[in-house]
Amino acid sequence: MSEQTGIVLVHGAWHSGSTWSEVAPLLRDKGFDVVAVDLPGAGPNASRPASFSKRPLESAVFATEPSPNAGVGQEERTQAFIDAVRASSERTGKKVVLAGHSLGGITVSPVVEAVPELIHAVVYVTAFMLAPGLPAIAMIQDATMADAIVPQLFLADPQTVGALRIDVASTDPEYRQKLKEAFYGDLTESQFEAALAGLHPDEPVQVAIVPSPVTPERFATVPRHYVRCTQDRAITLAGQDKMIADMDAALGGKTIVHTLNASHSPFYSAPDALSDILSRIAGT
């Protein structure tokens, strides 16, 4: 049994556990037991449509080929991180800080709902923190998200292919610029290239239609934090603020808010500041 506090990190859509490759060492240096797991259907667990590897890209085929990740559901993602939280708590003998980025928020919430007794605090890093009964797709389509760039990246009908499909290997300058603005607006070009190399094209769409299961009796007993990112073009600042207000109105209590002047990916552009926030939360 360790004296360290555990911090379990959940990545967002199209990303992987390597998202946290700069933040995790900083937290470990501060004495925390850090785990960053790849979600089912993501990172090395993701399959790619055959058309993705054929260049130049055949747009019509890419737009219609069924996703090999279409069968991945939220339940198995939730279970993967319940297991990660249990293992961390057993290893340290303490409650765990659970932090999720972006679409990783829809995994964080049901994990907290399932095992609130194991969670010291939950942290949403410019993430989908959804009020009871709300699916991610409803928030994606909300008026506060009208300026979000991500929907402009979709190259297939999600219902047709079973995935939110983007071309992370595109060489089209205009499309690449949208990718950068959506996810990595404050990164250098070399940082952007490195980040792109870690992405996969197909995020299983069915996870976006699952209603948020949070309740006052379980989820709301855990202190919750939200890291706002003021330059975010994937989840707009207005969208972030609406989710904070809606969750507080639905469940009572008050979300503790932290603000970074960063894009959608502060784990790359502001790793020191983000690790400081997480370490302070873990230390309280």
From TrEMBL:
<dbReference type="Pfam" id="PF12697">
    <property type="entry name" value="Abhydrolase_6"/>
</dbReference>
<dbReference type="InterPro" id="IPR029058">
    <property type="entry name" value="AB_hydrolase_fold"/>
</dbReference>
<dbReference type="InterPro" id="IPR052897">
    <property type="entry name" value="Sec-Metab_Biosynth_Hydrolase"/>
</dbReference>
<feature type="domain" description="AB hydrolase-1">
    <location>
        <begin position="7"/>
        <end position="276"/>
    </location>
</feature>
<dbReference type="GO" id="GO:0016787">
    <property type="term" value="F:hydrolase activity"/>
</dbReference>
<keyword id="KW-0378">Hydrolase</keyword>
<dbReference type="InterPro" id="IPR000073">
    <property type="entry name" value="AB_hydrolase_1"/>
</dbReference>
<protein>
    <submittedName>
        <fullName>Alpha/beta fold hydrolase</fullName>
    </submittedName>
</protein>
